[in-house]
Structures are given as structure tokens and as C-alpha cells.
Amino acid sequence: MRIAKLVATNKRILSLQDILNAEDSALEKDREETEALYEQAIKSSVRGGFLADAGLANERFADYLFCAGDEIEAKYRVEQSMKYYSAWGAMKKVDLMKSKWARVLSIVEKSY
Predict the structure, then answer these.
(1) Distance in angstroms (rounded) separating the CA atoms of residues 107 and 71
(2) How far is residue 109's CA from residue 112's CA, in Å, rounded to a whole number?
(3) N or C: which end of the chain has fewer CB within 10 A?
(4) Residue 75 belongs to domain spanning
């Protein structure tokens, strides 16, 4: 009972739970639900002030979108992830992401 109370009142645990819910949905291949859950995970992380969690949620969302073939949205999520990691002070992580995602980050969006 004490653990359940802690989970229900700890915003960090709830933020991480939202990320895990999005990851679980990604395995089920329901894109609409998965995207909504990643958005929820990002919002709860940001609202709670958990910059590392916001970076992680955006990074995982980027991976999901890239695998789904949506490189433009994946690029946006990579940029958001790097923004949160940078604000958190994780500059080595930002450097690693720049290297990993170099091709996606170089995509120029077409303006119509």
C-alpha cells in the first residue's frame, strides 16, 4: 500500500510511467494512440520540471517516428530532445545525438 501511495503522489514516477506507456503502445503498432501517449509523456515531464525525462520522451518519440518513415517530425523531436538535454546540462548527450542523427538533422523542409 505504501508503494502504491508513493507512485500515485510522485510526479517523477508518473512522468516515467507515461514514457513507458508510450513505449508499450509503440510495440502494439497503434500510431494514433502511440503519438498521443508520447505527447502526454512529454507534457507531464515538462510540467513536472523533469528535463531529462522530456529529453528522453522526445528522443524515443523521434526513434518511433523515424522507424515509421516520418523523418520531418523525427527531426523536430530530435531537436526538442537536444533542447531539453542541453537545458539539463547533458552536453555530451547532445553531442552524441548530433552524431547519431546527423543525416536527419540535415534535412531541409520544403516550403510550399
Answers:
(1) 8
(2) 10
(3) C
(4) 11-105
